Amino acid sequence: MNRRQLLGLAAASVTAAAGAGLAPAASAATDRRRPPLVFVHGSHGSSGYLVPLAGELIQRGRVALAVDLPGHGAEGYFPIWYQAPQDLHAMATEVSPIAGISLQDNVNRVVSVLRRLGPAILVGHSLGGATISAVCNAAPHLVQRAVYMSGYCCSNGQTVADLFLSKENADSLMHELPSAADGAVVLANRFNWRTNDPNTLALLRETYMADGTNAQLRASIGGLQPDEPYGVSLSDCSLQPATGGRVPRTYIRFTQDRAIPLVLQDKMISDAGRFEVHDLASSHFGVMTKTVELAGILDALC
């Protein structure tokens, strides 16, 4: 192996670094005058599924990284009962050790990254939208722009749970997905992403990745963890007029989303107001199926 190959492996190892998810290798093409982009993942996920999107932006000369929220990614909960063969009894009864993670914990994690990196464009996908709103409230001076990619954006004291139960979300196919456990027993939102039930897999594809293949669906859900703490969904994460409400914001509507329907996306845009709006013809997992198109939108923001 020559020196060039060794340097290539070193750069690859940086992009796989835990915690930040993806960090840019030094490049003469990188424009340091443009703000970095920091990505916040959604429910049950990690920085891992955002790596291709961040990588596309890095190739365009941007600084981009994805954050693992507490209890996710390298800190994720992947118990023995989740492996094959699965122990369905334990899945239905074992209390989640990450149940106590709160919205404030998420905020602390993201703010700690922004303090080291400097003011950034903060991008939240799905449930990650709640965290970026709370970060905008807590540290608006560290956020140059908040971007919601089919993400939850609460207003007027709302919680994500309120939006999930709203009439605008009635057509969300997430309502039809079978839970793996009673949340009152395990103290978390638990789902068996590693199911081999063909009906559930078909519903998952329709819900999250109707514009992708079955192979892409399995690849995308293979790394998802079973538990998501309730703390974020039950907390008031609405933008506060004096702080987070003053941060410039963009909403990227995923127009074919069956998890967060377009009518709910439009309600959040209308309620919060002052959005710059872009459309992407994609499913909820468009962050993986439409990375080039999405990176183009993000790269043009600033």
UniProtKB/TrEMBL annotation:
Q: Which organism is it from?
A: Kutzneria buriramensis
Q: Which UniProt keywords apply?
A: Signal
Tell me which InterPro entries the record gives. Answer: AB_hydrolase_1, AB_hydrolase_fold, MES/HNL, TAT_signal
Q: Where is the AB hydrolase-1 domain?
A: 37-273
Segment forming the signal sequence: 1-28
Which protein are we looking at?
Answer: Pimeloyl-ACP methyl ester carboxylesterase
Return the Pfam families for the record: Abhydrolase_6
A GO term, aspect molecular function? methyl indole-3-acetate esterase activity
